[in-house]
Amino acid sequence: MIFDAHCDALMKLWMDRSLSFQDGKSLHVTLPALKEAKVKVQCFAIYIPETVSEEARFTVALEMIDIFFEQVIGRFPAMKFVRSKRDIDALEENEIGAMLTLEGCDAIGTSLVKLKTLLRLGVSSVGLTWNWSNAVADGAWERRGAGLTKFGKQVVEQLNDAKRWVDVSHLSEKAFWDVLEIAQFPIASHSNTYRFCPHPRNLRDEQIKALIAKDGMIGLNFVPYFLTKEKASITDVLRHLEHVCSLGGARNVGFGSDFDGIEETVSGLDTVRDYANLVNELQKHYSEEEVERFLFRNFYDHLPQ
Fold it and tell me: What are the protein's GO molecular function terms (predicted)?
């Protein structure tokens, strides 16, 4: 079984309304591919493209949620909406859990009411920024490198109260440390290690150790240029995994592929269907229990509810 903490299929389905979750040729994540890969839980991110005007972003978030319920959940009985361990436990053998997440708080502007609305609609994890700044915090590519704003702290406190994940992927370093001080359920849904690939989106050893100390999760992603400066292979994914484990994170690491949010792919990991290739490599180096933890159990165990 696999728990994948991040994909951008909703963005693609929103941008091209002709695509089908059944057989969309440009989709990395489709129902047949999820079944073939034995994915048990797939997180679907609500990511608002930068081209969307500020005043339209919340509406677009609602449109993506509508696509999620109409085109992913509504049309396919095998896809079940999940928000908790209990929901996942209730899945039948042939059913796949679909979880809603938010990538970047641009959609809520400066409104806690909008955030609460998204949580009530079923969002289980909230990434505070994309790569730039918003009313909550600065992102990883924002040169200013500021931390959480006053409103950003209110957002984190709201997520604590609602028992939802606070996702630190894409944050500036200052904002990361601000979040770690107050977040009860921090994760990095799709981030790799700075040690093996010094990119602003990756986590330094001190950040990884801090997430582990807070019993958070790190979802390693399959973005080639977050893995290596060379041609990326599955071996590179394993290098980042082993490094997190060496820092004490064997029970705090999983995968957040970023499928459908990338154009170039890792050799051997072209779509979610290719998780089988990763599983085969993991089984060469780790015990059955460790592989099961990396692929599913670690993220499952860290669900706040």
Answer: metallodipeptidase activity
pTM: 0.97
Q: Which CATH superfamily, name and number, covers 2-302?
A: Metal-dependent hydrolases (3.20.20.140)
Instruction: Extract the tokens encoding 99.
Output: 């979880």
Q: Which helix (H) or strand (E) holds 81?
A: strand 79-81
β-bridge mates for residue 220, sequence order: 255
Quick one: 18 exposed, middle or buried, by C-beta within 10 A (0-12, 13-18, 19+)?
A: exposed
Q: Could you read off the pLDDT of 6-29 as tens digits, one per residue?
A: 999 999 999 999 999 999 999 999
Q: What are the CA-CA distances from residue 218 to residues 58, 214, 241 (Å)?
A: 28, 12, 10
Name residue 153's amino acid: K
Q: Which backbone phi and psi does 299 adopt, to 5 degrees?
A: -65, -40
Q: Which sequence spans correspond to the domains of the chain?
A: 2-302
What pLDDT, in 10s, does the model give residues 160-216?
999 999 999 999 999 999 999 999 999 999 999 999 999 999 999 999 999 999 999
> Please, which pLDDT band fits residue 60 given cuts at 50, 70 and 90?
very high
| Separation between Cα atoms, residue 87 and residue 14, nearest integer Å | 26
Tokens of 262: 């990338």
Question: What are the residue ranges of helices labelled H in the chain?
Answer: 9-15, 31-37, 57-67, 85-89, 112-120, 150-162, 173-182, 205-213, 224-227, 234-246, 275-285, 288-292, 298-301
